Amino acid sequence: MGQFRAADLFRRKPVGRVIAEGGEHLPEEGLHRSIGLFQLTMLGVGATIGTGIFVALTTAVPAAGPAVVVSFVIAGITAALTALCYAELASTIPVSGSSYSYAYATLGEFVAFIVGACLLLEYAVSASAIAVGWGQYLNEMFSDLIGWRMPDAIAKAPGAGGVFNLPAVVLVGACLVLLLRGVKESVTVNAVLVVLKLLVLLFFVVIAFSGFHAENLKPFAPMGVAGIGAAASSIFFSYIGIDAVSTAGDEVKDPRRTLPLGIILSLLIVTAVYILVALAAVGAQPWTAFAGQEAGLAVILRNLTGQAWTSLILCVGAIVSIFSITLVVMYGQTRILYAMSRDGLLPKLFQRVNPRTQTPDLNTYIVAAFIAVLAAFVPLDTLVNLTSMGTLIAFAIVSLGVIILRRTQPDLPRGYRVPFYPVVPALSVAFCGYLIVGLPLDTWILFGVWVAAACVLYFGYSARNSKLA
Known about the structure:
Amino acid/polyamine transporter I, 71% helix, mainly alpha, globular
């Protein structure tokens, strides 16, 4: 513990040290490399597909109308530009910690800590938002199977007409049990769930396009350009999977090759599926019908076919899908906490690894408890916008990191290089900025409170306990 000086805000961890600590040669008590390219790609797809489609469409379509398809394209372009930047940094600094670790090596400790805080917000709040949506589809499944629905008191958060969202807490608990069994088991289960999820969404697209009516696309953009931008800002949280891939840096086989490939492959799959499903959905029913519609995709299928079994298949797919997303997002958050603890910026309890399962057990319990509380008591729309804010700031920092590292350490070995440098990272920062501006005022206020709390923690504990001190 050293004397803190203002200059220490900008102290950077050498890239070689980041990699060495992250595990080119891991000690027995560290994390274990057991994830291949297919599992990693499924990790990214699993953390991404589902939230923007199964849950957020009901808030995004009323904001943009049928032009929500354009909103997904804008969000997808922003994510694509950022994914290329992630791919370069992941191949250069192949460790856990994602954009937090990249920022530590390029922009200094204080910025890295704030990025870490953004990531923790992004992961915790997105997992909560996803868990909230799980209860909606669970209710729809019960309705199709036995004609019964859970009462709002235990199926919704207080701000949404309920008292306590019980299904969300059950979901987080199930993910906790699986994560404690070990990362290899978790990613294998996730890969199976993701394949099932893609088949269910393909089923939806085929049926929805059979009921497609061009009239439902008119007026195409009733809320104008502002509505398209607002919807793109709110659904951007569903691209969190890009970041989730890079949190597995310490546990991926041949990370310099596997990480960039996993990031790019998962993004291509995700963007194609999102645009297809969004177009099929808005063509299958009037855009005004989406407002307040729970389990939206399942309802569309039931209305189109008049058959409960089609809705049931979609509900089961959504339940499985949302489980896999929650699992991966919780996994990602525990690894970011692990990386920050390893650097001395958080207490050591976050890096304690169970020698039998090779998982950070206590860390995982804490994450699960925090997410369960948020999911139980906070409404969905608030969670969605907060997640987008954290995601966009982390993405912008990664893109800046590419530019800085190219200028300061041009000779570092890179498994992948961003094409059309510096245009791509600069455009990525600009697109992220555009989407951040589109977020509502209450999101800015809540985010400001979160950053202020992070600053208190940094100056009160982290700055003096940092290993760089």
